[in-house]
Amino acid sequence: MGRTVICPGSFDPVTFGHIDIITRAAGMFDHVIVGVFINMEKKPNFTVEERIGFLKRTVGHLPNVEIVGFDGLLADYARERGATAIVRGLRAVSDFEYEFQMALTNRKLNPELDTVFFASDAQYTYLSSSIVKNVASLGGDISNFVPACIYDEIFERLNTKGNH
Ligand code: ADP
Q1: I need a labelling partner for 62 at 20 to 30 A (CA). Which of 19, 31, 34, 107 fits?
Q2: How far is the centre of ligand 1, averaged over its atoms, from the C-alpha of 1 (Å)?
């Protein structure tokens, strides 16, 4: 039986940092489910359909990657889908505390579920969806943060300054 893992996240929007983690997970595991949170505490800028669409256009070509929206407990969804591990990216020590707490919580909820951490690519350690949103909202260039195929759609939506 192949090994299935799940990469959960908000992906609001997807960045080169996410793409790097998903691509590396796809190289290591048989089946990678990219799970986009449907109901988020923090109100997303993009709808779940838009966030899934951006992911499909950037990592949809990877044959063992599946992109889905999901709701509810990650530990339950992982069990339902037969995933043996959660894959998360670690950028800096600041990510560690929260990620460690989530990993232990998920293992408590589902003892068969482990969490695997990939160290971020050094060139993306500063990068987050929030950075994309902040820079684009001020009319800044986001070409170092998101791929060209989704640039315009993201920029036009977020740029409140009207310049391009
Ligand atoms: P969440 O809202 O759960 O933090 P995100 O969409 O922000 O979801 O991130 C999803 C996953 O991608 C997380 O594991 C996060 O650590 C990872 N990630 C985000 N940005 C980067 C990056 N620049 N490099 C490596 N991993 C990243």
Answers
A1: 107
A2: 28
